[in-house]
Design a protein that fits this description.
Length: 590
């Protein structure tokens, strides 16, 4: 990574001057004209060195070895140091990327990380909340993987708990198994039955007791009850499998044969945890229930065993983490990608795990996502206020279809052409493209902002071809591919290409490309896919500007054509690499 090389050279200069280099940090300056990187190290050291920052900066600049990597270093008021990378070096770097040699520093190699995401509930809607978790979690896992970590993907399915007693009671009482089985979406019927249980229970509180009774039967292994519970799981998985496939999520990557370790897996693993926490005096009795009381009432108490002996969501989470630490190693890092509404819960959970001596600081990480609000009233007025993912997907595909048509007309001028271009692979090919645009738009919309922020869902923003959207970036990739496809000669990236006059737009792109690896690192270390999105969006804008201002295939001479094609190739490679990390598929034509 060029950034590292520059860091080393400046650190050497500091060492030569007997100055400490531990505070040295370099980052791109606000204004590209100031160079590739800047550092404020002279400003930082001025006080302790009792020197004027401008003078100190000049000393450092004088000691910096210029050459291939750093072509020029200069002082800027009030003591910044600006660094310019040599053009030859940038071109060498460009050539590497153009032949798809994208090297991401493996800073996380040796680390083991469990990324738990998606986590839908059996017999409940797969909500947009679960969608956010799926999209963000998958990307976080990809990012860490790309930087060398060993990743275990887990799906903590909600497949256990007293709600299953209620559900099974409702199936028995009001449901018809045959009808559920034959339904297009059995889960919808299960949800209806569950809702009915609650409306009925409002009238007749005894039902709650029934619910508990049936859950007890499930716990005790009653054959018929178990069968219905397992059946509900299978019905739900038929639905989940379909959704994951649509979203391009590879279920086979999930632990435990592609299904993750759901809550029920820990059904018989909670007793030893309760015993351990009692022995360690972390768990205390209060009115027949067992709770963790936090020192200084840092958090509200957390209940792990109810009065009637029933365990809870938290009890299963503790058993889950203990299992993970045993299975993957005491040093494994565990990430939960779960909605921000569970923040306090996870703080409590992590604290208990620390009190028990299982984990140390930084080993448990909650990546929180905010809520979805819909601008479109159609989506928000659904009964029960749950938004089914499948409805969102359907709408996205419908709208993406319109977009694909519009783009076709705009770019190619003739709708019949765009239609036929997709028909290369038949009608299904066009459908596939529309699909990829729709899913890309949904994912980008989620990933482009800080995860913890709420999203006001706006279809126009999602599919805006001029703005910061998935289709815009996918489209830029299509544009690159189209240019490359029309070139008469193959692109031959030449690392030694004489640095003739490089125009402003070219330089800006070449510089931007050189910063791709560090963007991945920053995105990863900050659990922030939005950094990567911002970068790819910026790169796309830069490319489109370059495309509008300069001829590529009809440039003045072969040398320039080759250079511009090399840039085009490199941009395509980086866009494809980045989109893949974001779980977004590229399309060759739109
Ligand atoms: N299934 C839960 C829900 O839908 C989320 C599970 C989160 N993960 C966990 N380890 N508690 O709310």
């Amino acid at each position: 990574m060029l950034k590292d090389k520059i860091h080393i050279i400046i650190a050497q200069a500091l060492e030569e001057l007997n100055l400490p280099s531990d505070k040295l940090a370099i980052s791109p300056p606000n204004n590209e004209n100031f160079g590739d990187y800047a550092t404020n190290i002279a400003l930082q050291l001025a006080k302790s060195e009792k020197k004027n920052p401008m003078v100190l900066a000049q000393h450092i600049v004088d000691a910096i070895k210029t050459g291939d990597v750093i072509e020029k270093a200069e002082v800027m008021n009030p003591g910044f140091i600006n660094i310019h990378i040599g053009k030859n070096k940038l071109i060498e770097n460009l050539s590497q990327i153009a032949i798809n040699k994208i090297e991401i520093p493996q800073v996380n190699s040796g680390k083991k990380i469990i990324v738990e995401y998606s986590n839908p509930n059996i017999a409940k809607p797969f909500t947009v909340g679960h969608l956010r978790s799926t999209i963000i979690g998958d990307t976080i896992a990809n990012l860490f993987e790309s930087t060398g970590a060993t990743i275990y993907r887990d799906n903590h399915l909600g497949d256990w708990g007293t709600q299953f007693g209620k559900l099974i009671y409702a199936i028995k009482e009001w449901g018809n198994e045959e009808e559920i089985k034959g339904a297009e979406n059995p889960v919808k019927i299960l949800v209806e039955l569950y809702v009915k249980f609650h409306t009925e229970a409002e009238k007749n509180p005894d039902l709650e007791i029934e619910g508990r009774k049936w859950f007890k039967k499930l716990e005790d292994g009653d054959e018929e009850v178990r069968r219905l519970w397992k059946q509900s799981i299978e019905w739900s998985w038929t639905e989940f499998d379909r959704l994951y496939k649509q979203l391009g999520i590879k279920t086979e990557d999930f632990e435990n044969n592609g299904r993750g370790y759901g809550e029920s897996y820990f059904e018989d693993k909670m007793d030893p945890i309760i015993k351990e926490l009692k022995d360690k005096k972390i768990l205390q009795e209060s009115k027949g229930a067992w709770l963790v009381f936090f020192p200084d009432e840092k958090f509200p108490p957390m209940m792990l065993v109810k009065q009637d002996g029933a365990t809870l969501y938290a009890t299963r989470d503790l058993a889950t983490d203990k299992f993970r630490l045993n299975k993957y190693g005491k040093d494994v890092i565990i990430i939960n990608e779960v909605g921000a509404e569970q923040s306090l819960y996870f703080q409590q959970l992590y604290e208990v795990e620390k009190m028990a001596g299982w984990v140390t600081d930084g080993q448990r990480i909650h990546i929180k996502h905010g809520m979805f609000r819909f601008k479109d009233s159609k989506m928000s007025t659904r009964k029960g206020n749950t938004i089914w993912l499948e409805d969102v997907l359907e709408e996205a595909i419908k709208r993406a279809h319109e977009i694909a048509m519009e783009v076709g007309i705009k770019e190619q001028g003739d709708i019949s052409m765009i239609k036929s271009s997709h028909i290369i692979g038949g009608e299904s090919k066009r459908e596939e493209v529309t699909y990829k645009i729709a899913i890309g738009a949904l994912k980008w919309n989620d990933l482009k902002r800080s995860a913890h922020m709420d999203i006001v869902f706006d279809w126009d923003e999602l599919l805006n071809m001029q703005g910061n959207s998935g289709p815009y970036v996918q489209y830029t990739y299509v544009r690159c591919k189209s240019v490359l496809g029309k070139a008469d000669n193959p692109v031959i990236p030449d690392p030694d290409r004489e640095s003739r006059e490089i125009n402003e737009e070219e330089l800006s792109l070449i510089r931007s490309l050189s910063k791709y690896p560090e963007t991945i690192l920053e995105s990863t270390q900050n659990f922030a896919p939005n950094y990567l999105c911002l970068y790819l969006y910026d790169l796309s804008q830069k490319y489109n500007l370059f495309y509008q201002k300069h001829k590529i295939l009809k440039a003045e001479d072969d040398e320039i054509i080759q250079m511009r094609l090399t840039i085009t190739k490199a941009v395509a490679n980086v866009l494809s690499h980045g989109l893949t990390l974001l779980g977004i598929e590229t399309v060759e034509k739109m």
